[in-house]
Amino acid sequence: MKKVFVLIAAAIVSMSAMAQVQFGGKVGFDMTHFWGKDVGHELVPNYQLGLMMEYKFNPSFAIAPEVVFAAQGGKETEDGTKVTYHTNYINVPVMLKFYATPSFSIDFGPQVGFNVYSKATAAYSGYKATLDIKEMTNLVDFGVGLGCTYNLTNNAFVQARYNLGLTKAFKGGSEKFDYEGYDIELSGDSPDVKNGNIQLAFGMKF
């Protein structure tokens, strides 16, 4: 039995010695949109800013959890009215990384996002109104990410990723707003609207 414990301890020490842990941060340019049967796919330029950690088990595999502030949203045009949605999230992706080469990895993993800001701006014939729609936005957003990372050096990297939302971004019900003395009511069932996010980022690991 003692030999078994010694072997287990040796294996743990060996794995710890082989593993590499790096922390870092990244900034990026995003093109965000909504997808689903109840909305179009028009893209909105946005940005991201976050922190990350990478735990490398061996030369081929690693896990990289992140905490990222992402300005998201989408837009649609109907009957001459253009509506742009600004829905910002704190996203927590956990990416599994396969290093095809020492510098290039393929990344895949789940993501959970928490909505922190949600407004809609409607523009029609020179008029514009911005409404707070946070009460009509689901707090939690689940999705998956797929992308790749290229390490320029031991510390600097560039990254491309697409995050696909799997849960509806908005919930049903109704909400009343007062805009310049006019009462505006938004109502309806839970729409089939989900988040999509094309990301290009630059980061540094330490």
Write a structural description.
The protein is mainly β. 8% of the residues lie in helices and 68% in strands. The chain has one helix and eleven strands. It has one helix at 2-18, and strands at residues 20-35, 44-56, 61-78, 81-99, 104-124, 127-132, 140-151, 156-165, 173-179, 182-188, 194-205. Strands 1-2-3-4-5-7-8-11 form an eight-stranded antiparallel beta barrel. The radius of gyration is 21 Å and the shape is elongated.
Give a quick set of tags describing it.
206 residues, mainly beta, 8-stranded antiparallel β-barrel, two-stranded antiparallel ribbon, 1 helix, 8% helix, elongated
Provide the fold topology.
Layout lengths: L1 H17 L1 E16 L8 E13 L4 E18 L2 E19 L4 E21 L2 E6 L7 E12 L4 E10 L7 E7 L2 E7 L5 E12 L1
Antiparallel strand pairs: 1-2, 1-11, 2-3, 3-4, 4-5, 5-6, 5-7, 7-8, 8-11, 9-10
| SSE series | HEEEEEEEEEEE
Count of DSSP helices?
Answer: 1
* Oligomeric state: single chain
In angstroms, what separates the terminal alpha carbons?
41 Å
Structural class category? mainly beta
Placed side by side, the strands forming the largest sheet appear as: 1-2-3-4-5-7-8-11
From the alpha carbons, calculate the radius of gyration and give it in angstroms: 21 Å
Main β sheet profile = 8 strands, antiparallel, barrel
Q: Which range does the strand content fall in?
A: over 45%
What global shape is seen? Answer: elongated
Total strands: the figure is 11
Unreliable runs: none
Overall mean pLDDT stands at 85
What fraction, in percent, of the residue positions are helical? under 10%
